[in-house]
């Protein structure tokens, strides 16, 4: 099991660390981890910059260029709005909204930092991830859950965009 996880992580890392501006795979990775001491669910979504830029141009403003020194402040609002629409999280069968903490660019990836606060206990978590499905038919979204001594990865596609993990 650990070797499968290691191989999957290595492949994802290679796909996301490519320094080419064009890529042949359409994949995002969303890591979700429960920080028990902080009583928060911490989320990092990794999305190729060029794909996210295409989305923002199509949905909000065709003049936007991401990862530029003069990037407009409104980009954070566009990203927040889009992620709120496409990434849905239920904890213990209750829907939660996350806080958009910010983003940063590393090589050709946008890292979006999100958090759900005041989570005292987790019995189950359900994630719907439709990021970029609306503009890229070949998009795949990997969701990695790390909580309560469990690590689980899911590959979500447009026809199957939800995953769930129970802790009973």
Topology, element by element:
Blueprint: H1 2-16, E1 27-35, E2 40-48, H2 49-59, H3 74-86, E3 87-91, E4 94-96, E5 99-106, E6 109-117, E7 124-129, E8 140-147, E9 150-156, E10 162-166
Give an overview of the whole structure.
The protein is α+β, with helices and mostly antiparallel strands and 168 residues long. The chain has one domain (28-166). The chain has 3 helices and 10 strands, in the order H-E-E-H-H-E-E-E-E-E-E-E-E. Mean pLDDT is 89; it is low at 3-8 and 16-21. This is DUF6702 family protein. It comes from Winogradskyella aquimaris. InterPro entries: DUF6702.
Average pLDDT number: 89
Instruction: List the strand order in the largest sheet.
Output: 5-6-2-1-8-9
Overall, the morphology is globular
Could you give the distance between the termini? Answer: 21 Å
H/E element order: HEEHHEEEEEEEE
- The total strand number stands at 10
The major β-sheet equals: 6 strands, mixed
Instruction: Give the tally of structural domains.
Output: 1
Features:
alpha+beta, six-stranded mixed beta sheet, four-stranded antiparallel beta sheet, 3 helices, 10 strands, globular, disordered N terminus
């Amino acid at each position: 099991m650990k070797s499968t996880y290691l191989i999957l992580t290595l492949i994802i890392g290679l796909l996301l660390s490519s320094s080419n501006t064009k890529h042949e795979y359409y994949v995002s990775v969303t890591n979700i981890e429960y920080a028990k001491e902080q009583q928060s669910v911490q989320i990092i979504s990794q999305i190729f910059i060029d794909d996210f830029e295409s989305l923002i141009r199509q949905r909000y403003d065709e003049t936007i260029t991401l990862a530029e020194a003069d990037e407009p402040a409104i980009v954070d609002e566009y990203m927040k709005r889009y992620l709120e629409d496409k990434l849905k999280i239920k904890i213990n069968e209750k829907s939660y909204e996350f806080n958009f903490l910010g983003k940063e660019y590393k090589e050709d990836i946008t890292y979006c930092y999100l958090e759900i606060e005041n989570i005292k206990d987790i019995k189950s978590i359900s994630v719907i991830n439709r990021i970029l499905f609306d503009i890229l038919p070949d998009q795949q979204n990997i969701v990695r859950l790390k909580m309560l001594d469990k690590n689980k990865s899911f590959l979500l596609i447009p026809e199957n965009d939800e995953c769930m993990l129970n802790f009973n």
